[in-house]
């Protein structure tokens, strides 16, 4: 057993006024299977880079382990896969790679193919295989399941569950529950380590947040009560003090000594109450600072004049004479949320593009309601650039509503003045989702919207779709999200996808 010891770590990017980390300390056991969670932009990838020694920082990170990072960026993808693996892990023993590939259910022949010919799933698996084939290394695995279908994700989960000694950055709740035994979470104010799966961590977080909110509400009421009581005691003290020079009662002069004593007593009570009020205020100020409130999102769907919005009958899609799918049948009615399922390469995105009106070669029948307004979230967000103001103008969005939606998705205001092209992958996806949420539409079509999106934002989006029940067709490989959101799942048969 070895430890990764983080002591008094602080870090800020050059030119930034805000610290990503500020005086954080914690320990990690290198035998753990550690899930790493937190909002987009909180510093998960930054921390991995700090472990790798890529940045200078005040504080201390100590460990006798060698760190290895996933994913490896292959510069020349035309080379044989085995040559690229040699680059990642020089001097590896081939039999170890064969062993790991067998566990991942990947044929060894992929090693002798150009890397560019491998599917996303195959690339992920061969990289994990070579990293785990090494010895005495602690692996830093950054979102390995992006662009992988559910079947591939399940295989990766089973594989990782059989291993130990890694940090896994992931927003996939099902994956985290399947293969980690500890959670490292970056919160608003600190970093904490907790034993258990994502579900147990999230349940504890919700319970703690609820307890703090109840305590906060209780203290708010107490502050109001004490303020009122202190004010009344102060007023009574003044009245009593003024009565020292009051009128005679039954010919007798007022006992000024007694009255003064009563006034002082009242004033003392007022000061005690004010002290208790101040103590309650200070206690209240310590609450809620670390709560990641998932603010309620809103949607503005339009109601179509008929119940049926779109229908596909016996649709088949072909490219260059090769069928990618056939016999696709489904209809979309008001309030239905259709999840298209299937392996990568089976034609799911092509079906979405057909409905959007793109020229996709197909046979069969497709009907889309006349005058239907569609809001679309594409799979790829890398093309985004320019300002948020320009995007709002281009898509006829109310700028204040658009930015408010982004704030609710935890995009910091400091990002608003930046070019969208400088945003992280997760932040760009949030821009596309916020844009879609601000558009009034009859039908929402989302293609893998959750890639790179943090888990708390995923839960927000789930709650939104469950509350507003828009008509929707989507492709998503987050199994937990699909189970919650979809009213119907349509399996698209794979005729050659990997």
CATH class of the largest domain: Alpha Beta
CATH topology of the largest domain: Rossmann fold
Mean pLDDT: 87
Reported for the largest beta sheet, the result is: 6 strands, mixed
Q: Please report the total strand number as a whole number.
A: 17
Class by helix and strand content? alpha/beta
Q: Number of helical segments?
A: 14
Number of domains: 3
State Rg: 30 Å
- Morphology: globular
Q: Which strands sit side by side, in order, in the main sheet?
A: 5-6-7-3-8-9
Low-confidence runs (pLDDT<50, min 5 residues)?
Answer: none
Per CATH, the superfamily of the largest domain is P-loop containing nucleotide triphosphate hydrolases
State the distance separating the first and last CA atoms: 38 Å
Question: What is the multimeric organization of the chains shown?
Answer: single chain
| CATH second-level architecture of the largest domain | 3-Layer(aba) Sandwich
Instruction: Note the beta-strand portion.
Output: 15-25%
Which range best describes the helical content: under 10%, 10-25%, 25-40%, 40-55%, 55-70% or over 70%? 25-40%
Describe this structure in words.
The chain is an alpha/beta fold and 498 residues long. The chain folds into 3 domains: 201 residues, Rossmann fold; 80 residues; 184 residues, Rossmann fold (3-Layer(aba) Sandwich), CATH 3.40.50. Helix content is 39%, strand content 21%. The strands form 4 sheets. A 6-stranded mixed sheet has the order 5-6-7-3-8-9, sandwiched between helices. It has a 5-stranded parallel sheet with strand order 14-15-16-12-17, sandwiched between helices. Strands 2-1-4 form a 3-stranded antiparallel sheet, with no helix packed on it. A hairpin with a 2-residue loop joins strand 10 and strand 11. Helix 5 runs parallel beside helix 6. The protein starts with a strand and ends in a 7-residue tail after the last strand. The mean pLDDT is 87.
